[in-house]
Amino acid sequence: MLTVSDLRVSYGMSEVIHGINLEVGENETVAIMGRNGMGKTTLFKSLIGMIPCSGGEITFNDKKLSKLQSYQRVASGIAYVPQGRMVFPSLTVEENIMAGLEVTGRRKVPDDIYELFPVLLEMRHRKAGNLSGGQQQQLAIGRALAADPKVLLLDEPTEGIQPSIIKQLATTLNEIKQLRKISIVVSEQVLSFALNVADRMLVIDKGQIVHEAVGEQIDRAHISSYLSV
Amino acid sequence: MGGYTSQELTAIFVMQGFSGLSLFCVFLLMALGLAIIFGQMGVINMAHGEFLTLGAYITWMVSELATQTWPWMQDFYFPLAVVLAFAGTFILGYLVEMLLIRRLYSRPLDTLLATWGLGLILQQIYRSTFGPREVSVTMPDWLMGSWAPTDIIDIPLNGLLVMGITAMMTLLVVILLYRSRWGIKVRATTQNRAMANAAGINTQRVDRFTFALGCGIAGVAGAAFTTIASTGPTTGSLYIVDTFLVVVFGGAASLLGTVVSAFGIAQSQSILEFFLSGSMAKVITLLTVVGILMFRPQGLFASKVRR
After folding, report:
1. Least confident of A71-85, A96-110, B26-40, B49-63
2. What whole-number distance in Å separates Cα of residue B222 and Cα of residue B220?
3. One CATH from 3.40.50.300, 3.40.50.2300, 3.40.50.10090, 3.20.20.70 for A2-227
4. In terms of CA atoms, which chain A residue is nearest residue B253?
5. Which of A164, A188, B261, B286 is paired with A70 by a 20 to 30 Å CA distance?
6. In this complex, is the C-beta atom of B138 within 8 Å of any C-beta atom belonging to chain A?
7. How does DSSP assign B158-177, residue by residue?
8. Testing the interface with A: which of B185, B202, B209, B307 to mutate, by most A Cβ within 10 A?
9. Mean per-residue pLDDT, B13-36
10. B187 contacts in A (CB within 8 Å)?
11. What's the mean pLDDT when you consider all of chain A?
């Protein structure tokens, strides 16, 4: 469904992503594992169009995305939850979700978002900047889901979140995949979390995919050897 | 105080206070446009005053048309002039964003120079088109005269009209920003342009419309301005510094701050002007503002959230 072929991304003259190939199937969760500085966030930002790619192609259901602006990619069915949440701090929770609704043309926040995240319903008139980190993470996912995506990109969703909430987050992601029949691409350093959600695991190292494993074949020890410094 | 009786002093305060209110209205209308443009795009529009001038000239042209060609329109032309002033400056703002500002985002110094140059060009165009002499509109009869609640207090009617227009525009902007879908898009873009785009908002379109709207409000300010003073090619540039002062003092992207600081600056200017000379009034106002900004560099009102 989402195909990335020979993607290259550079900051100025230095290339950070060296020709990544990636295929995301329907209703599948792919985890991209890697240490800090290996190119996870750069990969995600270039997928959503926040930084341009210098080579290669991103296609989604036969539509070429590489030249499109971010909002056009969102309109074609990709939504993005950035590292560090990046909710709009002085908008209320409800307004944040409505910002995500923009591409669908709908005006009312869909009920299933509040069902997935009851805490957002409770706090819908609060300023998003005053929410806790975990609540902001839920809001960022809710905002992305409001755009009715077919593929949800999550960049390090567990960063800075307490362990009990991380478990809950894994459950929620699995629930979202079930309910909405969408694919999820998640970048992670926390192996236990990734094992809970992923159907397939890729390891990114120095801007290249160096290891891939599906379902049963995922070898915990082997992957954690890539993650340890 | 210089041989005034207490009754006279009250009258002076009321009347100067009221003329301060007229000044406040012009400041506020200018600052509203500037604040939403600066707040959203970080663009400092040095040509903002020239948009006020354009609005004023459009009003003058409609008034000329009304007095010379269609005398029956004379009593009603003003509302039409306000609408046309808004439309004219909105369109010019839209074109300027499309042809100039859009190419200079994230280059604040370049926009500063480019818009300043644009301001000079517009001034010269006005000078060549309308002549260097100041023009004033022919006011409809119902706007002449004043309302006198006591023997020595005179409140001019045109001032009341300007206040009405200002209140309406401010309310409209507040509703647009805080109660409409467009407002959500604008505020999201203001806070994080890249993320707003990645959340599915067409930020380019939002920017263009916001810029045009800010200019349109300056046009309305120009229409209101014609009722209290005459218009020349450099009219707008006289107000631009004060308006920037209002925006910075109030705290960028805070509408309440803009209103309060416009009020404070206009009133202190107008009341001090009566007792001291105009330039001393300006010096005292500026010193006070600078003093306060040293302790509150973020402006009077900045919203309190974690960032």
Report:
1. B26-40
2. 5
3. 3.40.50.300
4. A90
5. A188
6. no
7. HHHHHHHHHHHHHHHHHHHH
8. B202
9. 85
10. 88, 90-91, 95
11. 93
